[in-house]
Amino acid sequence: MSRVKRGTTTLKRRKNILKKTKGYRFGRSTKKRQAKEALAHAGVHSFAHRKDKKNDFRRLWNIKINAFVRANKKPISYSKFIGALKKNKINLDRKILADLAENNPKSFEKILNKII
């Protein structure tokens, strides 16, 4: 049976790991063991933060809607605005409302006038 030398496979594996950790600080970008560990932790954090990102955007949308609602002629609170939307059966989600408030204030004002 012929001899198998594993240098090329090992080097390729190391190179791939280090390519993924490019830009990391200290030994995590140059040493294989530290890079591998850093990648494992990065994967955990990226999974968790993908979930957090949804919450962050929802908060941002709430802030945008609240700012526009309170800046109007008849200022009401955000919670009363959302309650009135549901009562009048206007099914627009917060993402769409925030976009309307920011980019198309006239149409958002029409919605607001319809509620008040």
TrEMBL record:
Domain of life: Bacteria
GO cellular component: ribonucleoprotein complex; ribosome
InterPro entries noted in UniProt: Ribosomal_bL20 (IPR005813), Ribosomal_protein_bL20_C (IPR035566)
Alphabetized GO MF terms: rRNA binding; structural constituent of ribosome
Biological processes, Gene Ontology terms: ribosomal large subunit assembly; translation
Keywords, sorted A to Z: Ribonucleoprotein, Ribosomal protein, RNA-binding, rRNA-binding
One Pfam family per UniProt: Ribosomal_L20
CDD domains xref list: Ribosomal_L20
Transmembrane segments: none
Function, as annotated: Binds directly to 23S ribosomal RNA and is necessary for the in vitro assembly process of the 50S ribosomal subunit. It is not involved in the protein synthesizing functions of that subunit.
Record-stated family: Belongs to the bacterial ribosomal protein bL20 family.
Name this protein carries in UniProt: Large ribosomal subunit protein bL20
Organism the protein comes from: Candidatus Campbellbacteria bacterium CG10_big_fil_rev_8_21_14_0_10_35_52
Organism placement in taxonomy: Bacteria, Candidatus Campbelliibacteriota
Gene name, Swiss-Prot/TrEMBL: rplT
